[in-house]
Every structure is written in C-alpha cells, then in structure tokens.
Write a structure and sequence with these properties.
The chain is built from no helices and nine strands. The protein has 95 residues and is mainly β.
Length: 95
C-alpha cells in the first residue's frame, strides 16, 4: 500500500510515499484493496483522485467537503491548489 483513504465517502486518497506518474497506487477500503494508476507524479502526503471528479464537484477528504474542483480532475491525478479551491470562512466582523 502506498496511499490511504481516510473515510469511505472520500474521493481522494493521500500518498504515503512518493508515487511516480504511471506507477501503481494501492489503498485499502472497507471493501478491500483498490488499485489504480497515477496519472502524474504525486508528492508524499499529497492527494490524488480516486475517481474522475467533475469541475464544480466537491472534493471530499475525512468524509467532509474540503474544496471544489476548478477543472475536471482525472482518476489518479494530483489534487492540489492548481485544481481545487478551498471554501473560506468569512472572518470579517459584521457591523
């Protein structure tokens, strides 16, 4: 295993070692081992898509929405700030 999924609802896995483009990715789910191919280099502790994610679709990690895809993300692709925008809480004081 070179990746892990945190929650069964997640559509991203986290690389637990560097993964080269074209390399095998494997992680465990409650249903068993899943294997896919890395579409690009994945840095250790970075996310990769476990399935195709459409532009505008929620990115889910820890079973929670952590962002929205700003472009289509292919299965096995690196998921990071270049293709995801994170929602930000409005922290300005209300008058």
């Amino acid at each position: 295993m070179n990746a892990m999924i945190i929650d069964p609802k997640d559509n991203v896995a986290v690389a637990i070692e560097p993964i080269a483009a074209g390399g095998a990715v494997s992680y465990l789910t409650p249903e068993g081992e899943v294997r896919l191919t890395a579409a690009e280099d994945i840095t250790i502790y970075h996310k990769l898509a476990t399935r195709d994610i459409a532009e505008g679709e929620a990115v889910v990690k820890y079973g929670e929405h952590i962002g929205v895809a700003t472009a289509p993300i292919a299965k096995g692709a690196h998921v990071h700030i270049h293709n995801v925008v994170s929602p930000r809480e409005d922290r300005q004081a209300k008058e």
